[in-house]
Amino acid sequence: MAPYNTFPTIQIAKLSKQSSTLCKPAPYSTDPEAIVEHEGCDYTQKITVEMAQNGTAPRKIRIYTDGIYDLFHQGHARQMMQAKNIFPNSEVYLIIGACNDELTHTMKGRTVMTDVERYEAIRHCRYVDEIIRDAPWKITDEFMTEHKIDFVAQDSTPYVSEDCDDIYKEIKEKGYFVATERTEGISTSGLVARLVKDYDMYVRRNLARGYSAKELNVSFLSEKKFRLQNKIDEIKHKGRKVKGDFIQKWEEKSNEFVRAFLMLFGRENLLEKIWDKSKGGIREVISLHPKNKKNGMICDNNGTDLQPPKKIQRTKHCSITSDEDDEELNLAQSGFPSITFTLPSNNFI
């Protein structure tokens, strides 16, 4: 690795230049900064591909790439990055051309963004040094001379137009074309397809954000349908929120219940106190064991005589209430209410 003090001077100058351009958007070709750059370029010194690749070019290499750049995305930025770094051993001045709305709508179709919006999106890409507004659909020798363009950068796939098979065919034949790679999986057409696919969802979103049906070009019935769907979704959301709040509160209450239960029935709290109080009752029951009897009397632990419980006398009464014999069992002389029942057949006598 080379020491810091031997770092190439040209690389330091390039880094300093790039840092200054990142502080503001790129100029238009009609701005003073771009005019000064254009006039300082000696276009009589022709640059070949070999010179650009070897880093022997006597001046900056002016590379041009063009497009519509509608819904500016990472595929556009990546293509510009490739063009900016197509000759890593030389200093590249990248010029971007964008067609206006009138030409674009005629040759390709409608755009989502206006030409002014597309220009401004390009200006704020870090790889761009200059922007040409109202760029032509097909590059001519006169256009390249006017803007002192050395090479044109585009992907190698032929770009078919109404009047030709490839609008870059002549540039390729003259040796002014350098190829970049297309970014797969992203394109303006793909983004538009996503919007069309989820049209209802985006209309509902914008209606909810305050856009009018007229601004969205939505009919009266469609507007009512979309607003009803938004209201239903709002009710569903509130229902889920209430359910979530109920579950959260239930969990909090259950935690409080568990904590209270543990405080009441823990090892050293209420259960232990209940056990201590019940010990006396258990001792009293144990004292009624037969071994504590004394001369037919029941004694407690202290030897005090206790009166035995009264015996319950069972008497049998037979009565005839019909042609069959009935038997009545009566608990008498017990101090309890008399209970009488009838046996339905003689089999139990």
Automatic annotation (TrEMBL):
E.C. number: 2.7.7.15
Keyword annotations of the record: Lipid biosynthesis, Lipid metabolism, Nucleotidyltransferase, Phospholipid biosynthesis, Phospholipid metabolism, Transferase
NCBIfam families from the UniProt entry: cyt_tran_rel
Gene3D superfamilies: HUPs
Pfam family, one: CTP_transf_like
Superkingdom in the source lineage: Eukaryota
Residue span(s) of domain Cytidyltransferase-like: 64-191
Family that this chain belongs to: Belongs to the cytidylyltransferase family.
The protein, known as: choline-phosphate cytidylyltransferase
Metabolic or biological pathway: Phospholipid metabolism; phosphatidylcholine biosynthesis; phosphatidylcholine from phosphocholine: step 1/2; Lipid metabolism
A molecular function (GO) term: phosphatidylcholine binding
